[in-house]
Amino acid sequence: MFLRVYMRELEKLAAERAREAVKYDKLGMREEAVENYKEAIQILLNLIRFTEDTVMKRVYEEKAKQYKERLEALLEKSLESAYTPTKNGKQHEGYHIIDPPPVKWDDVIGLEEAKKALKESIIYPSLRPEFFPLGWPRGILFFGPPGCGKTMLAAAAANEIDAVFLQADASMIMSKWLGESEKNIAALFEEARKYEREGKPVIILIDEVDSLTAFRENEVGGEARARNQLLKEMDGLQDKGRTPRIYVIAATNKPWLLDEPFIRRFQKRIYIPLPDMEARLRMLKH
């Protein structure tokens, strides 16, 4: 009984690591993809060792083989890039910079309603601002089940308007040291303003934002200060006689945990659903 439960948990963990690896791989973030592929392979090897089901053992072996081949290819590319200057892929503590991300609309299968909403909120106003005299959203909230394409959708939008893509994980922004979380948030937005001053549009993606802005009855001072710093930075994006080119996309799997003042800063909220039957078939053929 215990072994079966343990095996199920290992399978879930392997699938989670594989999803993360594929996501980072498509975004061109090799180091993160390599790390997640390695973890997925190690978990699959443990499953192979413990399972007595010959069919499942072959499935695990095939998956491990696929991930190993992709891992070797990434390691070869990393070795080549060590001697070749690259255009993008800068990494800072708490966030990554991709200019522009190598993801296009066609790489995002399904999510047609979400794509339409994103085009109306970011793409069209950025390309033809004269048609939107009343302004357009600067804050967009993605919410929905995990692993449904929130990161890829944001990256594709950045590619469409040739924007600098700053991807930040809220759990990486938070720090146990006093004042560091606020500094990380300020540094993220200052980096975005630097690119904006150069005339480039910027999309900031804050993943798992609920870990940063969730309402808690018992919270320490650092969490409240970090949340207030983010709200302050969001308020600075509002129109004040100019046309800012910075967009903030926040992604969460748990929108019910978000603080109300934070939600109000996001004029557009887009639901990212599970793929339907047609989208799943296209994914298998892709």
Description of the molecule:
This protein has helices at about 1-25, 30-50, 55-80, 110-125, 150-160, 170-175, 180-195, 210-215, 220-235, 260-265, 275-285; strands at about 90, 95-100, 140-145, 165-170, 200-205, 245-250, 270. The chain is of the alpha/beta class and about 290 residues long. It has 2 domains: about 1-80, Phosphotransferase system, lactose/cellobiose-type IIA subunit (Methane Monooxygenase Hydroxylase, Chain G, domain 1), CATH 1.20.58; about 95-285, Rossmann fold (3-Layer(aba) Sandwich). The protein has a 7-stranded mixed β-sheet, with helices on both faces. A hairpin with a 2-residue loop joins strand 1 and strand 2 (about 95-100).
Number of domains: 2
Using the 3D structure, state the CATH architecture of the largest domain.
Answer: 3-Layer(aba) Sandwich
* Share of helix, binned: 40-55%
C-alpha termini separation: 38 Å
The number of helical elements comes to 11
Cα-atom Rg, whole angstroms? 20 Å
Structural class: alpha/beta
SSE string, helix = H, strand = E? HHHEEHEHEHHEHHEHEH
Shape: globular
Strand content: 5-15%
Query: What's the mean pLDDT score?
Result: 78
CATH superfamily of the largest domain: P-loop containing nucleotide triphosphate hydrolases
What is the fold's blueprint, element by element?
Elements: H1 2-26, H2 30-50, H3 54-81, E1 90-92, E2 95-98, H4 112-127, E3 139-143, H5 150-160, E4 164-169, H6 170-173, H7 180-197, E5 202-207, H8 210-213, H9 221-235, E6 246-252, H10 260-264, E7 268-271, H11 277-285
Parallel strand pairs: 3-6, 3-7, 4-5, 5-6
Antiparallel strand pairs: 1-2, 2-4
